[in-house]
Design a protein that fits this description.
The protein has nine helices and no strands. The protein has helices at residues 2-25, 32-42, 47-69, 78-116, 119-125, 130-169, 173-183, 186-212, 217-251.
Amino acid sequence: MDRFFRFFDALGEIAVLTGRTAREIVRPPFEWGLTITQLDIGGVESMSITVLTAVFTGMVMASQFAIGLEPFGASMYTGNLVALGIVRELGPVLTALLVGGRVGAGIAAELGSMAVTEQIDAIRCLGADPVRKLVVPRVVAMTVALPILTLIADVIGCAGGGLITMLEVGTTATFIFDQMVAVITPPDLLHGLGKSVCFGYIISIIACWIGMKTRGGTVGVGTATTDTVVYTSVAILVSDFFLTRLFLAIYG
C-alpha cells in the first residue's frame, strides 16, 4: 500500500514539474544558449549509438523475416515488413531506450550532484528559477532531438534491412527501395515521430525530477542515476502501448 501511495505522489510531483516547465517555456526570454548546449549533448553526441543500433536492428529484422517468409514464397516482401516495423515501432522505441539510458542518466547525475552540493538552492538564493535554468532547456532539447534521431534511425535501419534483403533474397536495390517508399505513408511517419516527441518529454522530465530531488551525497547520486534508467525504460515501454492504441485510432 505504501508503494501505491508513493507512485501517485511521484505522478503528482511530475505533473507539477510539467506545469511549471510549460509555464516557463512560454515566458520570455528563452534560454537559447543553454538549450543549444543540451541539444549538442543529447542529440549530436547520441548520433553514433543511434546509427549503430539502427543498422544492426534493420539487418537482424531482415534476416529473420527473409527466413520466416521463405516457406510461403513471400520473402521478396521482406523490405515491406522491415520498413513498417522500424518506422512504426522499433525506430522510436529502441532509440528512446538507448538515448534515454545515456542522456537520462547524465541529466540525473548532473542535477543530482548540483542538488547534494546545494547549487540548486544557490540558484534560488540568487533570485533565479531552477526550473527555468535547468529543466526547461533539457526538456525542450530532448523533445526536439529525439524525433530527429528517430528519423535518422528509420533511414539507417531501412538501409541496413534493405542490404540484407538484397543478399538473402536476391532482389535489386531499386525493387527494395520502391517497396519501402510504397509501403511507408505519412501516417506511418507521424506514428513513429509522434511517439518520439512523447518519449523525449518522458525521458527529460523524469530525469530532471529525480535529479532535483536527489539527497544523500554521492550514494544518492548513484541511486538517482540507476532509478532514472529504470523509470524511463519502464515509462517508455508502458507509454508505447497506449500511444500505439491512440495513433491507431487516429490514423488507422
